[in-house]
Amino acid sequence: MQNTLYTITGTITLKKGAGRSLKAGGMWVYDNEIASMDGSVQDGGLVHVLDFDGFFLGTGFINRRSKITVRLLARRKDTVIDDAFWEKRVRDAWEYRKQTVDTGSCRIIFGEADWFPGLVVDKFSDVLVVESLALGIDRFKPLILDILRRVLAEDGIPVRGIYERSDAKVRLQEGMERFKGFLSEPFDTRVQIEENGVKYLVDVQDGQKTGFFLDQKNNRAAIHRICAGKRVLDCFTHTGSFALNAGKAGAADVLGVDASQTGIDMAEENARLNGLQDKVRFTCADVFDLLPRLEAEGERYGVVILDPPAFTKSRNSIKNAVKGYREINLRGLKLVEDGGFLVTCSCSHFMDPELFAKTIREAAHGAHKRLRQVYFGTQCCDHPILWAADESYYLKFYIFQVREEI
């Protein structure tokens, strides 16, 4: 008997001239691109997508409550979507990580970039943390996780527990309830991991996102050479990751700043875990308020690190985001001693690389500084960037040497 999860519930036909992003390699069909729907279309179910002239474009999940109405799963007409289809995708995702990244802690599934639309799975040591943000993939979540546990076990990696962090507001836009809780027997949700020789306690239950920002792994390693012997200021430190890397690299003194006292408490615990509590200190403060005060007090640092949260999550608020990035970079630059380094990044997809670079240039001009680019990075390779699917590229990371205007 056929599994009804795999039943094609209808056909979507696009308007003439619509679907340009999809045809260029993108993964989404928006509500305003659809001309008609035929069949017994069921939200969360599978549909075929046709161009206006009947040309087959692919198969995907539909959700009429979402502006992203169809999330593509496959482009070939002869692709069979069944249990074997999901098993191959899970195995492909895991094999890719084994070839490219330290798998002690890593992102195993990264949504559309791994062809799992709307699904994220992070591995923290022997614990998996899941975020499901699309109705269609949510229906297959138990199957995908069962396959993943089996695939990891084949490599001698037992999974102690699984925790779901599907508590983002975007779930509501999909007509889904926000959910947070165990998908396995309960376990201690404070998990110890190690990355770049630094140990961390990760709170998968109450930490931001899935508990830890794995995407900065390579960028955290990139700051080691520039921090030795320096005074370092780490802004938006979260649970102390950049600050601790600076301390591990031999910085003389490190101050980490974050507006969350919960984050600061965890950062201090992480410092003790690494024996760095004497040189890496933390304070709870609003960075926008603190930086002008440090400047007025005449403080200067060999390295200033700016790792803010996304200032915009939509195109509508991009102007305000630009102001925020310009302000924070200008203030940070004024605190860098001549010949020191600015480390700055943006994790907003809508702050595209050209706009971010332009904003940094404007900040440097306003601060009367000259910048020499030392390093450019993006998200770690366990968060792969799928070309032609722009939504998978979001992190821009720079290291600059800062010189006074001559």
Give the arrangement of secondary structure elements.
Blueprint: E1 8-14, H1 20-23, E2 28-30, E3 34-38, E4 46-50, E5 56-62, E6 68-74, H2 83-100, E7 105-110, E8 119-124, E9 127-132, H3 135-154, E10 161-166, H4 170-173, E11 179-182, E12 190-195, E13 198-203, H5 217-222, H6 224-227, E14 231-235, H7 241-248, E15 253-258, H8 261-273, E16 280-284, H9 287-296, E17 301-306, H10 318-334, E18 336-346, H11 353-366, E19 369-377, E20 396-404
Parallel strand pairs: 1-4, 9-10, 14-15, 14-17, 15-16, 17-18
Antiparallel strand pairs: 1-3, 2-6, 4-5, 5-6, 7-8, 8-9, 10-11, 12-13, 18-20, 19-20
Helix pairs in contact: 2-3, 9-10, 10-11
Structural class of the secondary structure composition? alpha/beta
- Our estimate of the beta-strand percent is 25-35%
* Count of folded domains: 3
- Radius of gyration based on Cα positions: 23 Å
| CATH architectural designation of the largest domain | 3-Layer(aba) Sandwich
Count of alpha/pi helices: 11
Q: Name the poorly predicted regions.
A: none
CATH superfamily of the largest domain: Vaccinia Virus protein VP39
What is the makeup of the main sheet?
Answer: 7 strands, mixed
Q: How would you sum up the global shape? A: globular
Give the end-to-end Cα distance, rounded to a whole number of Å: 77 Å
CATH class of the largest domain: Alpha Beta
DSSP helix fraction: 25-40%
Please give the order of strands in the largest beta sheet.
16-15-14-17-18-20-19
CATH topology of the largest domain: Rossmann fold
Q: Give the averaged pLDDT, no decimals.
A: 95
How many beta-strand runs?
Answer: 20
InterPro entries: PUA (IPR002478), PUA-like_sf (IPR015947), PUA_sf (IPR036974), RlmI-like_PUA (IPR041532), SAM-dep_methyl-trfase (IPR019614), SAM-dependent_MTases_sf (IPR029063)
Domain PUA: 10-95
Main location: cytoplasm
Subcellular location: Cytoplasm
